[in-house]
Structure formats: structure tokens, C-alpha cells
Design a protein that fits this description.
Length: 191
């Protein structure tokens, strides 16, 4: 039997993404978000939700752009740090010993050491309670060659992205491959 636990911001899985912005003085900044995901395929878009109080919020508004750097398991401590420290108070890139890389396509930095980067132009913003949901059109995705499969596509098992467990506020790794999407379900379709 299912038990009601009330209305909470809880879904599984949620990503651990690091949003890159420049502040008003051109200083690179980044913050970790979990309220995020793909929201459209054509044009390719993602959404990230930030509170107005965050330092990164102003950077997105000012520059009309942001990046998303997707950390591998090797960078879980750094990803957590980007979510608990403020760019108002310290240079997060310097403290984490990570490299801010200037995007050539949008006015926003990304993290050079993370295996996957999405460069986004701000398309829409929507006030939703405490958060503003920013919809970014993906103008390019950069992927380390070492995490590509034989067809040149990102391989989730090589990337080893970090996911966030909203219920217990913990980080997790991706599990094993369960089957090919749009295929394994055919076994239960009517002939």
C-alpha cells in the first residue's frame, strides 16, 4: 500500500548540473542545480530553476545566456561545493581548483574538467514561486572524446554523471543498462 508523504519537490532522478555565468564585472561563477531537465527537442532546450537570491541569477539575467557543465563521479565534491558556496564571497573556480573556460558561442563560462557541457542562449524565463525557471536553447554541446561511444555519441556509462536524491539529499551514480529505449517495451505490445 502506498503512503501519502505530502507535496514536496521530489522526483527521481534529478540531475546534478553546474550552471555557469559571468557576474556583472565579467568574473566567472558557477552554481549547482538539481531543479533542471530537458524541456524541448525542437529547438533543443533545457530548463534550470534558480532562486532570485542566488548570485548566478543576476548573471543569467544580465548576459541572457548560461552553460551547464555535467560533472562525472570524480568531481562530486566540487559539484557539491559549487552548490553551497556563494560567488559573492569567493572565487569558486579558484577554491575548487577547476578551470573556467570562456564559451565561444554564448557569454558564459563552463568548467573545463567536466566531461559534458551544454551552451545555452536564454529563450524564456518564468516565475514559479520561489524560483525562476530559465529555458535555454542549446546552441552547442561539447563532449570529451574519451566519453564518446563508437558512433560519436555521449556514453552515459563512460560519463558517469552524478544524480541527486532529493528525499535524502545525497548524490548517487548511474546504475547498469536495463535495455534499449523504444525497443524493450515492444515485447509486451499486442501483435
Amino acid at each position: 500500500m502506498k503512503q501519502s508523504i505530502g507535496a514536496k519537490p521530489l522526483a527521481f532522478p534529478t540531475p546534478t548540473w553546474v550552471v555557469g555565468t559571468y557576474d556583472m564585472n565579467g568574473k566567472p561563477n558557477a552554481m549547482t542545480v538539481a531543479w533542471a531537465g530537458i524541456c524541448c527537442s525542437n529547438p533543443p532546450c533545457i530548463s534550470v530553476s534558480l532562486r532570485k537570491a542566488t548570485y548566478s541569477y543576476a548573471g543569467i539575467i544580465e548576459n541572457k545566456a548560461f552553460t551547464v557543465s555535467i560533472p562525472s563521479e570524480d568531481f562530486v565534491k566540487e559539484a557539491d561545493y559549487f552548490g553551497i558556496a556563494s560567488g559573492r564571497d569567493e572565487d569558486k573556480f579558484e577554491c575548487a581548483c577547476l578551470t573556467p573556460v570562456r564559451s565561444e558561442l554564448v557569454p558564459a563560462p563552463y568548467i573545463g574538467e567536466f566531461p559534458v557541457v551544454l551552451e545555452c542562449r536564454l529563450l524564456h524565463s518564468l516565475e514559479v514561486g520561489l524560483h525562476t525557471m530559465f529555458v535555454g536553447e542549446i546552441v552547442d554541446i561539447k563532449v570529451e572524446e574519451s566519453v564518446l561511444d563508437e558512433n560519436g555519441n555521449p556514453d552515459v556509462e563512460k560519463i558517469k554523471p552524478v544524480i541527486y536524491g532529493t528525499g535524502n539529499r545525497s548524490y548517487y551514480s548511474i546504475g547498469c543498462n536495463l535495455g534499449k529505449a523504444f525497443s524493450i517495451g515492444k515485447k509486451i505490445m499486442k501483435p
